[in-house]
Amino acid sequence: MNIDTVIETVVEKKPKIVSVVGAGISKASGMPTFRGEDGLWNNYRAEELATPYAFSRDPKLVWDWYRARMRILLEAEPNPAHCSLTKLEEKNISTGIITQNVDGLHEIAGSKKIVEVHGRIRYRRCVNCDHFERWDSNEKAQKSIELPYCPKCETNLLRPDVVWFGETLDSQSWQQAAEWTMQSNVMLVIGTSGVVAPVSTLPIYAKQNNSLVIEFNIEQTPISGYCDYSLFGPCEETLPEFTDKLIERMK
Ligand code: BJW
Questions:
Q1: Is the CB of 24 under 6 A from ligand 1?
Q2: Residue 245 Cα, ligand 1 centroid: separation in angstroms?
Q3: What residues does each domain of the chain span?
Q4: Which residues in 105-223 belong to E strands, given as ranges?
Q5: Which of 12, 126, 216, 244 is the most exposed place for a label (fewest CB within 10 A)?
């Protein structure tokens, strides 16, 4: 699909753009994705680690996975794809970014209208009480240490402040995601395999709302079938080209 043709269709809509984002956007920043070639960690699949059951059975295994990801994240920086979404916001064309990523790279790129529906890896909370803290600086260099216990209630473990399989998304975050979807007339679906609910349903709601849905991915996904356009290629290349040309065309 020719990117210029897609842009002409977007311009005709007087676009209000919501972006739905997955792990593929942070690949060029060095962050591994969940599925596909680099989706394995020590022979475990994400589905085997990102669950409350896995944490209760083997919290050290789950914490080791999060610490390994945190060590990569602390070296990571936003890439041109993150920055292009910030530019859309600065030009008042963006309604907001709905991200499944827990890495916080949109915020570092300067975006402000972000909802992190699967939580934030830089924070952790007590499994029992309301204690909540940032943890991305104090343990970064340590590969494997004792399990973190809650400093307030002392006997209970801390866990990453993220959403695991079988857990519900924060209702306010999800409401914000739904509102942005309904307030927009263009949805960009960027670097997600589109297999994890409920985020996988947002492009369907967007279509029902007569929005134009445009996918940016390196390959076909289950979402491709109901996208108006799929722009295949690394989004750190295709997305900046798309947003730069769109912004130029809208001057
Ligand atoms: C590039 C690229 C480049 C690469 N450029 N592109 C049966 C049927 C349907 C649903 C269910 C079911 N059984 C249970 C469910 C519900 C379940 C679910 O969806 N499961 C499916 C897997 C089957 N969902 C839930 O449980 C959710 N909660 C919920 O539904 O609550 C209600 C409920 C409660 C109880 C029972 C039932 C319902 C919660 C989901 C939480 C997901 N959590 C994780 C971990 C978060 C914390 C962490 O990061 O550790 O979220 S799992 C993991 O998957 C992570 C991601 O955010 C999420 C999505 O992955 P994403 O981002 O799409 O990454 P990948 O790796 O899959 O894809 C990367 C893509 O990028 C690929 O397409 C590449 O091609 C592409 N790419 N490089 C562009 N350079």
A1: yes
A2: 31
A3: 3-31+78-118+169-249, 39-75+121-162
A4: 114-116, 119-126, 132-134, 158-162, 186-190, 212-217
A5: 12
